[in-house]
Queue: 4 jobs
Job 1
Amino acid sequence: MTSLHDKAQEFADELTATVHGALGSHVPAFVAEQAPEPSGPVTRVAVHPVGSAEIPLTIDSARALSLIVDFQCRWDHKEAFLAVSKASMGVVPRSGSTPLFRYEFHDAVGDDVPCAHLHVHAHRDEFVFALFRGGHGKPAVRAKAVEGTKKRATPQLSEFHFALGGPRMRPCLEDVLQMLRVECSIDVTRDFTYVIEAGRARWRRRQVSASVRDAPGAAATTLREMGYRVDEPVAGPAPERLTKLTRA
């Protein structure tokens, strides 16, 4: 039987293939490390770069940023599949220790805070400097700014496009409303929690249905693994919608 550590190492190998393929083989590989347990079987495995090292990010071949990544893994509720119970991905400027921003996921964070969320740490100037390092904006616009024929080519924090899960996993209105309730204490009705949870469940069921149509083969395989009987259509298996599966 495959152990939790083995499954986590498979996940680590996938992450290694991603960073090596995207950034180069010089960046640290990912490893799976068992969390210390007082007694009994292993229930948690950490997946992160070797030695919890930062992943260097360069701009014009010069070190500019660092990516800090950490996952905490465990078995799912049926102890059949690997589940990520906690994840953190932060981007840190080369000259500092505080992230510009970080994505967080914590499966047991509590009902009042979104389990998947984004923290922005940086002041505006730090972000603008990072954008300048990358030559943000069209070259022609920057050239006109230097010439004085265009008033503004300075990048703005508001122009930074944060990735939030693509066409299927994007936040819903209910997520935004709950965020404003928790973080800003907006006034809500007595039925707020019920309405938000019902709406979010409805949204996610629809997204699951849409995701199944995007990857019917994967959906069928998962259902068979859960004990369902799934037969292929007479006309043959439906193709994947790669434009949806690959879109950021």
Job 2
Amino acid sequence: MKKLRKIVADIQNLTDPDQLQSLLWQLICYSPKIPSRLHQQKLLDESEIIPLKVYDQYFSKSDLNVNCFKWGNGSVKILLCHGWGSKGSDFSEIISMLRTNENFEIWSFDAPGNGSSEGEISNLFLYAASIKQLFEHIGTTPEVMIGHSLGGMANALALQQIKSYPQLLISIAPLVNLKDNFIASMNSVNTANEAQTLFFEDFERLFDQKTEDFLLNKIYDFSDQLKHLLLYDTNDLVSPSSDIEGFLKENPEIRAAAYQDTSHSKLLTDHRVLQEIDLFIQQELSSGK
């Protein structure tokens, strides 16, 4: 968090406007690395660690080492994708719950620029590339995929790109509108509209894609291919419920559960959320539908 605070302070104290765009890229693409807590580290110590490589074509122009973690050797494979400024071990409560089932093989990873993996800055495409690299390593599409926040959007992007789908998809407070998220970050440091417009022009040139395309509604075009559970908080400040409910309106076949007294990050540890996930997986996998 110290580096992020410095980026914010540098933007707010900026006297040379020519430096602003470089700092905005850091503001948007730098993901704070928060150390694992004791119980999270214990969970990692009990995992099998598999390093994979993901090529970063946008920033470093190099292969990045991505640390992946595996628990169990069951026939049902489950992949978890964390959110921005997060790491694989932030799913610790969910992973511990899943480990009670000996039929499960559970995978998580630290996306580039997050947790223990390499990379100074990151982006949605590096998340999706990590997911696809794990698919290749595992040798199949996992039966269950779980994503939180940006990880929910990354799961959808990876599935859209490879056209291979799990039986079950679980999204926990997924980001729906990435551009609005960027705007909120820049507004928080009082970035002028002109500077924001320039940033988005540079962004679209780098990624060769319109920022308006970074909508979950556009990425998620395979609703008839799987069973999907979406869990969210109605007072979430990171992934607004209005965005999620708009997405659900366009995809009424998704099973959804809303909470009012948790938060964007605490959804990962809320006992009701864990019960909902456990019930969904057990019922849907056993039904064979």
Job 3
Amino acid sequence: MKRTVEIVLTIIGIVLFGLPVLLSGVLLNSADNPQIQQEIENFMNSPEVQMEGEMSSTDMTQMFEMMGSFAMFVLIASLIAIGLGILAAVFLKGNKKPKAAGIILIISAIIFTFATVFIGLFGGVAYLIAGIVALVRKPKKTATDEAISY
């Protein structure tokens, strides 16, 4: 039995989980760039931005550290989701372990949609659909199967 639909949906999910990888990469780059940090600090302390008080440089440093930590967490979660998607596609190829692949895809869809703070929502949906189809789809009976099952 061919598992083309499940493999295609899994590959689409892998590509869509690449979006959080790109976004977190950009966020990590901007968190480490002192020029961008200075521009954001100037913007936050400008008179056009109405805030209760000015942000000190320590507040800004903490904000950039949190931004970098968040981006690193999303990056790692997305890379794990991509790795599990590749593993599931290998299991689906040649109809080796479709049940295991379906379970991996469904669990990955749920966990990594939340882990990426819904940035990987579309990848999670693709994984979820592929996982459900992999679990629900029954193999076609062949002539030898029907002859054996008196």
Job 4
Amino acid sequence: MGKSVANLDFDNILSLITEARNRVYVKANAELIMLYFNVGKIVSEKVVQGNWGEATVNDLASYIAEKQPLLKGFNRRGLYRMKQFYEVYSQPELLELIDVDHKNPIASALLTQLENSDNQQVIFVSALLTQISWTNHLLILSKTKSGEEKIFYIYQSIKEKLSTRELERQLNTATFERTMLSNKLGSQITTQLPKGIFKDPYIFEFLSLPELHSENDLQQALIKNLQNFILEMGKGFTYMGSEYRLQVGNKDYYTDLLFYHRDLQCMVLFELKIEEFQPEFLGKLNFYLEALDRDVKRNHENPSIGILLCKGKDVEVVEYALARNVSPALIADYETKLIDKKLLANKLNELTEQFFKNE
């Protein structure tokens, strides 16, 4: 039985209410972020000019509390956070980080607005910073160091509509460093994969797997924790199935995990290995990709991408294996425990230095 006419009307009204509330939230949030930026600007300039000291900022917090006792967030700590917010995002060099290297639609739209504006700082704040919540901004300010890292997580928060909990996980699992590592390694080994989409390594700390586990254990644990798995990969992925059947000739073959990526408009196949990468793994992956493209892919879709998740790899072996590979593929490590962020940062610095030496 379909829905009654009354129920359809009810749903329509509920939809209107929800959409209106969302618009109100977006506008209110934008006004709030602009307010915090402007308050931070005044406090920062007064302190820099030597007109205000710490005692004056304390007096301001007390004054606001006396005049507006129900107002939250304007205590001494909150005012200094607004000051930091202004000082970080008023730096002109941050504008140079707004690029469209990996066809980022957010950056592309922002660049267009910046190019047509006489006041780039106002556009930068109103068109970018107001798109995420103050709580997410506080997380980014407290857990990142470089401007590039901050802009990365702002893009992530906007593009994937990250909740505070989801953003915190991305920060704790060093998503920036892992994505940049994947980009750097990819530029040295293969140029077939789009930048900014895939990571290396992938972190599956949510699986609670023992150090010794089988491929089936890994596959079943990922399926059981599918929501967390997709969050780790990125919200552009849609699950198509496990043990996806491919018929070639008179035989059936079964892939591990198959997804579709909405932005890339292609299937993405994850094959799981609980051992270090071996060149022969690539032959099987390419076979599956060929079968997907011949028999499953639709005419308007792009060629399928293959991701081999291995328990370790030798970069030189990977480079040799991919040198003549025609299918877009990534050989990525996976870890079942969190990695020290400093180790990933050091590895990224080493790769960056090596890249510039080879230029």
